[in-house]
Every structure is written in structure tokens, then in C-alpha cells.
Specification:
The protein is an alpha/beta fold. The protein has helices at 19-30, 51-57, 72-82, 101-111, 146-149, 161-166, 179-189, 211-214, 216-229, 234-258, 262-273, and strands at residues 2-3, 6-7, 9-15, 37-44, 63-67, 87-90, 96-97, 117-125, 131-132, 157-160, 194-205. Strands 3, 4, 5, 6, 7, 8, 9, 10 and 11 form a 9-stranded mixed sheet that branches. Strand 8 and strand 9 (131-132) form a beta hairpin.
């Protein structure tokens, strides 16, 4: 879809009790230098005394609605169905779209017409929005490596809606924690051609209420079920995932030594593994 010569891009955001960060996300989308963005926000039954609704009503350009809770992935499917954009991206309410991200994506897709989508670099920020050093091994590896170490964030992945519709690539609402992981595995298995932009497209916020932090154990169990369901090669997964974790640990230890935090690092490892 082209509007006044520019492709319409839909940013889809499910939100549930994320009012603390929602407004900052809205502004990060609103401040993009690209002229045609549709920001869809679905309030998935937030229980915050109407704070989320108060924020949403402040921004008349938004396409938003609120209804009873149905879960994150059902909400993302709802947003995808409603999206009018030629290109779509799913951005969580506590994350940010980096300056110039959308224009960079459209410029890439305009010159790579054979691509179904493109992903870019994701950086990390803390609860206050300050940059957090965070090493992602193989962050620019092709999507074919995604099943083994999930190096692509959905907020840095822009896909042509037509490609998703053609292959029926919606999220599995039966999953609670790793629906984006399972969805991206199916993007790869459908042989979608996904390009790479070597620039920052989004900023993921690290905080205590993050789903991956609160439900890490449940996420791991669910991820193993997904790996089994899609018949991901077990040996390849073990080897590549182990390499990924090793490289991250080496980086982490290097940072700890560099900043004089070796004592803290040892305490963390003791707390993690216990006394043996």
C-alpha cells in the first residue's frame, strides 16, 4: 500500500499494565522522521485504574482500543489483522523505536524488492532509559540461525504484511511466553527472505517486571516444547546454543574484571549454582 508516494508502516503494540513506559514508546514512534506510520495500540485489559487509557486519550493520532484480557499473542494477532500498513512491526509497550529506524527500513525494502522483511540491531536500556552494555553474540547472523539462539528481537524486525498473510504466519495464542520465538521459527521455515540492516532499530528495556525476567523458568520449558514441535536438530541446538552462552559469559566476565566487579561476579555465580 502506498499513500502519497510513501509506504504505510504499522507499528503494533499490545499493552497490559505497562503505563509506566507506554508514553515514552508512543513518543519514540511519533518522533520518527518517516511520514506514514500507523501506530496501533491494544490495551489488553490493563488493571491500573485507567492510567493506560488516560495516556492513550492524550494522543489522537493513535489507532487504539481497549477490551478484556486475552493474552499477548492473541492481542498481537488482533493488531496484525487490523493493520493497514504494507510493512508491520511488533513493538512492546516498554521498548522504544530508535530514531530514524522506520525510514531506514523503508529505504532498505525499497531497494531490495525481493526481501519479505528486514531486521536490525537491538540495544538495551534500563528502567530509566539509560543505555545498558549488553552483548548479543551473532546478532547479525542470518535468520536461519534463529532457532538456536534467538538473536533477533521482534521490535527490530519489519515484515511485509502480504508475506505474513500469504503464509498464514500469525502468533500461536496457546503459548504464554515464547510465542514470538515460535513465530520467528516459522518465518524461517516458510523461507521468507529476511535482510539485515547494520544499524540500531530498537531499544529493549530491561526491568524486573519484564516477562522474560519474571517467568524465565516457564519460558525455558515452553521453548523446549517449541523446539521439539518444530523438529529443530537437537545436536545443532545444543552446540550452537552452548557456543552462544560461552561467548556471552566471556564478555560478562571481561566486563566484570574491567570495571572491578569480580567480587560481585563470584557472589552471583555462587548464588546461581550454590555451594558444591
Amino acid at each position: 500500500m502506498a499513500i502519497n508516494g510513501a509506504r504505510l508502516v504499522s507499528i503494533i503494540t499490545p499493552t497490559y499494565n505497562s503505563s509506566e513506559y507506554l508514553e515514552e514508546l508512543i513518543q519514540s514512534v511519533q518522533n520518527q522522521d518517516y511520514p506514514k506510520i500507523e501506530h496501533i495500540i491494544i490495551d489488553d485489559g490493563s488493571q491500573d485504574n485507567g492510567v493506560t487509557l488516560t495516556i492513550l486519550r492524550k494522543y489522537p493520532h493513535l489507532h487504539w482500543w481497549s477490551r478484556a484480557n486475552r493474552g499477548q499473542y492473541a492481542t498481537m494477532n488482533e493488531g496484525l489483522s487490523a493493520a493497514n500498513g504494507e510493512v508491520v512491526c511488533f513493538v512492546s509497550a516498554d521498548d522504544l523505536v530508535s530514531p530514524g529506524a522506520v525510514s531506514s527500513v523503508i529505504e532498505y525494502l525499497s531497494t531490495h524488492s525481493g526481501c519479505d522483511g528486514v531486521f536490525g540491531i537491538t540495544s538495551r536500556i534500563d528502567s530509566q532509559g539509560k543505555p545498558v552494555p549488553y552483548y548479543i553474540p551473532f546478532q547479525t547472523a542470518p535468520i536461519s540461525f534463529y532457532p538456536y539462539f534467538a538473536h533477533i528481537s521482534h521490535c527490530s524486525l519489519y515484515i511485509r504484511k502480504e508475506s505474513l498473510t500469504k503464509h498464514g504466519l500469525v502468533f500461536d495464542p496457546s503459548l504464554k511466553y515464547v510465542g514470538d520465538y515460535e513465530w520467528m521459527i516459522r518465518l524461517y521455515m516458510a523461507r521468507l527472505k529476511i535482510g539485515l540492516l547494520r544499524c540500531e532499530l530498537s531499544r529493549v528495556r530491561l526491568h524486573a517486571e519484564q516477562t522474560s525476567q519474571k517467568y524465565s523458568s516457564g519460558s525455558r520449558v515452553e521453548a523446549q516444547e517449541v523446539i521439539k514441535q518444530h523438529q529443530i536438530n537437537r545436536l545443532s541446538f545444543i552446540m550452537l546454543n552452548a557456543l552462544y552462552r560461552l561467548l556471552f559469559k566471556i564478555w560478562y566476565m571481561t566486563q566484570a574484571i574491567k570495571h572491578g566487579e569480580m567480587t560481585m561476579l563470584i557472589k552471583r555465580q555462587v548464588n546461581k549454582y550454590g555451594h558444591k
